[in-house]
């Protein structure tokens, strides 16, 4: 009887252990995936600043390399608050990510008139040692932004000078199959980002 | 408290865009924004939409008051895509987001035809 009870207890413990699910992610997880893996845009990163990512013929593909995660952010370097705050939070978060070397970052400007490759690459070095920067035409950018469900608008005056830029303030994580696996809206704290990234990398 | 402004689709919640069924909470701290079919077609009437925000959470103008840890759940029953603050919710989709940081978040809700809303998270 004692053996039988012990066996039952062991089975119960094993069952409990096996059924324990990971904590839900802090970011938004959609029931139906967005897939951006077939999309590419021009990568304008200086070669020595570039790391990871699938770059083919000067274009970065929006899917992570095997075993890695690709983080994608749409913003602009003149942004006074949201963009730098998000990138700074990410920088802090990555310090607490066990395998941060498996995380690649892409910054896509929605303000290509002002965000030249030089401006972008200098700006991003405030937040990361290695990254990818994307600057392209409206014709190339819009469909990719739409695929991510990113919304942006650049208001210009009669002379074509930029007056205001509005954009979605969301950081996206893309897996090796090109699926957007989580979206972190602006305001997600660094510890939550780190926890989510650690969890996602376990499955990557 | 910091004030973040970044027009259009930008920022958090803007959940004043709710509509239809009351955002009364089934659970404490969970606000349900149930976007009914036909919302986009009707153009989204501000007064009727905001009427469904609990009185104590709406202080006039277009400001919604929530607490850190509160969750916004958006159910889009419309045939059109809707932008609810930071997130774009596709037709038939349900999304949830929990506020984790204090601040005033200003943005435009597509349901309100350009009306600016502020969400104050405390």
Question: How are the secondary structure elements laid out?
Answer:
The complex is a heterodimer of chains A (204) and B (122).
Chain A: H1 2-19, E1 34-35, E2 40-42, E3 54-56, E4 59-61, E5 69-75, H2 82-95, E6 103-109, H3 117-124, E7 132-134, H4 138-148, E8 152-156, E9 162-167, E10 170-174, E11 179-185, H5 190-203
Parallel strand pairs in A: 5-6, 6-7
Antiparallel strand pairs in A: 1-11, 2-4, 3-4, 5-10, 8-9, 10-11
Helix pairs in contact in A: 2-5
Chain B: E1 3-5, E2 30-35, H1 39-42, H2 46-50, E3 63-66, E4 71-76, E5 82-84, E6 87-89, E7 94-98, E8 103-108, E9 116-121
Parallel strand pairs in B: 1-8, 2-4, 3-9
Antiparallel strand pairs in B: 4-7, 5-6, 8-9
Textual characterization of the structure:
Chain A has helices spanning 2-19, 82-95, 117-124, 138-148, 190-203, and strands at residues 34-35, 40-42, 54-56, 59-61, 69-75, 103-109, 132-134, 152-156, 162-167, 170-174, 179-185. By secondary structure, chain A is an alpha+beta fold. In chain A, helix 2 links the parallel strand 5 (69-75) and strand 6 (103-109). In chain A, helix 2 packs across helix 5 (190-203). The longest helix of chain A is centred in the first third of the chain and has 18 residues, at 2-19. Chain A is globular. The model of chain A is unreliable at 1-19 (pLDDT under 50). In chain B, the strands form 3 sheets. In chain B, strands 1-8-9-3 form a 4-stranded mixed β-sheet, with no helix packed on it. In chain B, strands 2-4-7 form a 3-stranded mixed β-sheet, with no helix packed on it. Residues 1-25 of chain B have low confidence and may be disordered. Chain B is built from 2 helices and 9 strands; from the N terminus they run E-E-H-H-E-E-E-E-E-E-E. Chain B is globular and about 35 Å long. Chain B has 122 residues and is mainly beta. The A-B interface holds A 26, 28, 30-32, 79, 81-82, 85, 149, 151-153, 164, 166-170, 183, 185-189, 192 and B 2, 4-12, 81, 83, 85-88, 90, 93-101, 103, 105, 121.
């Amino acid at each position: 009887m004692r053996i039988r009870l012990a066996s039952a207890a062991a089975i119960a413990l094993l069952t409990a252990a096996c059924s324990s699910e990971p904590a839900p992610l802090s970011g938004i997880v959609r029931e139906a995936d967005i897939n951006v893996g077939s999309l590419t845009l021009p990568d304008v990163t200086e070669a020595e600043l570039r790391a990871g990512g699938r770059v083919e013929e000067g274009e970065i593909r929006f899917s992570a390399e095997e075993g890695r995660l690709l983080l994608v952010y749409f913003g602009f370097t003149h942004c006074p608050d949201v963009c730098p705050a998000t990138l700074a939070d990410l920088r802090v978060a990555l310090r607490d990510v066990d395998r941060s070397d498996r995380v690649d970052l892409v910054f896509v400007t929605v303000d290509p008139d002002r965000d030249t490759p030089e401006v972008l690459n200098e700006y991003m070095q405030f937040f990361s040692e290695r990254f990818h920067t994307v600057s392209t035409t409206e014709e190339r950018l819009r469909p990719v932004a739409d695929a991510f469900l990113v919304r942006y608008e650049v208001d210009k005056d009669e002379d074509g000078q930029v007056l205001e830029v509005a954009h979605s303030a969301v950081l996206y994580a893309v897996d090796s199959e090109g699926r957007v696996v989580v979206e972190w809206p602006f305001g997600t704290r660094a510890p939550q980002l780190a926890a989510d990234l650690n969890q996602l990398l376990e499955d990557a | 408290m910091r004030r973040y402004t970044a027009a259009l689709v930008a920022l958090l919640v803007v959940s004043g865009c709710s509509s239809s069924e009351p955002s009364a909470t089934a659970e404490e701290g969970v606000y349900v924004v149930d976007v009914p079919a036909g919302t986009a077609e009707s153009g989204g009437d501000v007064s009727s939409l905001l009427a469904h925000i609990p009185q104590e959470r709406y202080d006039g103008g277009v400001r919604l008051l929530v607490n850190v840890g509160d969750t916004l759940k958006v159910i889009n029953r419309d045939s059109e895509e809707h932008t609810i603050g930071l997130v774009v919710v596709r037709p038939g989709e349900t999304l949830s987001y929990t506020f984790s940081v204090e601040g005033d978040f200003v943005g435009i809700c597509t349901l309100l035809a350009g009306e600016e809303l502020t969400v104050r998270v405390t």
